[in-house]
Structure formats: C-alpha cells, structure tokens
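Table S2 (text version). Query chain:
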Amino acid sequence: MIQDTPLPTIMLAKAKSISHPWVYSSGVVAPKERLPPGSLVQIVSPSGDPLGVGFYNGRTRVALRVLSHQADQVIDEDFFVSRLQMAMSLRKDLLTESTNMVRLVHSEGDLLPGLVIDLFGDQLVIEWFSAGMFRCREMIKNALAKLFPHHHIYWFSEKRLQKQESFDCWELPPPPAIVGLESGLKFKVSVGSHRKTGFFVDQRDNRRLLASLSQGATVADLCCHTGAFSVYAKALGKAAEVTAVDLDPSSLEIAQENAALNNVTIKTEVADVYQWLKQKIAEKAKYSLVILDPPKQTRSQELVDAALNKYVALNRLAMEIVQLGGTLLTCSCSGLISEDQFVEALKRAAFHCGRTAQIFHISGAGYDHPFLAQAPESRYLKAVWARIL
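Corresponding structure-token output:
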C-alpha cells in the first residue's frame, strides 16, 4: 500500500481534537463510500479541520487508529524507518552480550498502533494486531531490512484477531527454534509457536527481582509456560527446589530444555493449576515462594467482573500454599483490568482464605514495553509482590 493519491477522509462525530490513539466507531461519521478494512485515511474534525492520518476499519469497535497528528504526514517506507529508529533508541541499552531478546516495537506505546515486533537474536518476529498494519506489511518489511539487513523476518496474527479485523494473514513456515540470551541465561525460543511471539520478554525485570528473592527457597512456578521464572530462581537465585506447573506438556518439555541449557534441575508437572493447588492444599504442602502468572482472563469489557472473580479464586488458592512469611508474586496480563481492580481482587482473596497480603512492591513490564500517558489501558501487565502472613 503506497500513499500516492489523496487519502479518503473520515470525520469525527463530535470531538474537535484527538488525544487517544484510538477512536471508537461511535466517535466517527461513517463514510458514504465503503473503505477496505485498514484503509489509510485523513482524519478531520466536524468542522473539516485536518487532525492527522490513521487507519480506518468500519467493521471493528476501534474504527480509527491514529498514526500521526500531522495532516500532511506521508505513510511510506521512510515513515516506518523513522518510527523504528525512534523505537530502537529507547532499547539501545537493553541489548548487551548477556541479553539479545527485546520488544522492539510495542504498538501504541511506540506510535505504531497494531504492530508488535520482538527481536530474538537474529530473528525479528512480527505480530499483526490491525488490518491497517498488515496492509503496510511490505513497507514495514523493507524498513526492517534496511535497519536489520542480516536478520530473518517471521510474522503471524491470531485467527481471532484476523476475524475481528477482517484480514487474512497467511501462515509462514516457522523458522527453526533458536537459543536466546537473557541476563546471561539461555532460553529456547520457538518462533512460530503462537504463544505470544515465542518468549515472554515483558517479565524480564520481574524475573531478575525474583532471582534476588530465591536463595534457598522452595518455589512453585504456576502457569509457568516455558519455565523462565523457574530457571531464574534456580540458576541465578540458587533456590533449593523449583516445581514448574503448566497445562501444556510441550511448554514443560521446553522448560526442561531451558533448565538443562543452564545446568540446573527443576521439577515439572502437567496439571490444571486449580486442581494442582487444591491437591497441594489437601496435602498441606507449603512453599516459601509462589509465582502465579496465568493467561489473560478476559478480552471483553463485559466480562471484567467474571475475570476479577477468577483472579480472586485463583489467588485465594495460591495464598494457601505460601508458608507464613513467604512471598507470592501474582500477575495479571489482562489489559482491561486496572491495577486498582487487581489489588482489590487480591484483598478479597486474602480475606477469603484468612491470610494477610503485605504488598511490598508493584511492577509491570520492562521499559521496552512503553505506554502512552493518554492511553493507560495499554499498561497491561501488573505484577504484585506480597508477603503472605
């Protein structure tokens, strides 16, 4: 898609300016002509004043994704090179001899709404979240080739998202698994596994803090995915014993490979975390450090209350297996749930199991996952650290 003709115009219904990178369908005047999902458009106020350039999708709740507040901004390969260079400047201190995995582009947080790019060694993994960004794929690919001439590029998009945004992202052959570095530790990254982009780089800083609390600890790593927290606890933190639990056997196979790559031993158990916790409570098992990092609990605003109830139930069980004075690291990656709501859920969980949660730290994703001040809902990851008394 090359911007070589005047852009179609989309008028806002009431607003005279734009601050948030999204405009919902109720906030725009539907155009008379039917535009393909993800079309580049010029955004104008109700009085016709130009406000910027963005992607329009009349089939989704988020009708406009703002790319630039400059009305004359040309969206071409140079535009993407410039935005990518800006994103790279934030991460320049992250990539070192001991860490070669980083979130290179974090969607709205890097002024590229609907685009996520992770860097794993010599692999660039793109996840498309909008029809507009997918329509710009060749320009983005060429821009990346200019900045990373020796890297391989792989892309994908979740089927659910493609249906929601009305575009078809064909499957690319997944590249071979690679071994990436983080804090000097080695991790197998299966690009193309469609579990995010292959590795959860957002928890990097939290893994380092966890390692500092792990010496001599008995650790339960729940919903562990490929065991990154477990490896940090054992290899860097010198934990006495680590048990990693996940429902996906293939993830636990990689967790064992990651442990072997770092010359440590962890126990793995394939289990539903609810059932595993109930069993451990029945056995009166206790751990000095418990990590609870479940998958996203809701993608719908209408289901937020139900998701909060799930967090209450899960954390109540997790608190019961923490020994007196032990630590619980509990996480939520549900962007629709605020930090205050998540903390309130933990308060309810502690009340229901007769324990006290003494919160000593609240953190989130690393600084390669920026969010805009005017779009705080994109601060999706909440990590709450508490002593359980």
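Notes on Table S2: The two ends are 58 Å apart (CA to CA). The chain is about 30% helix and 30% strand.
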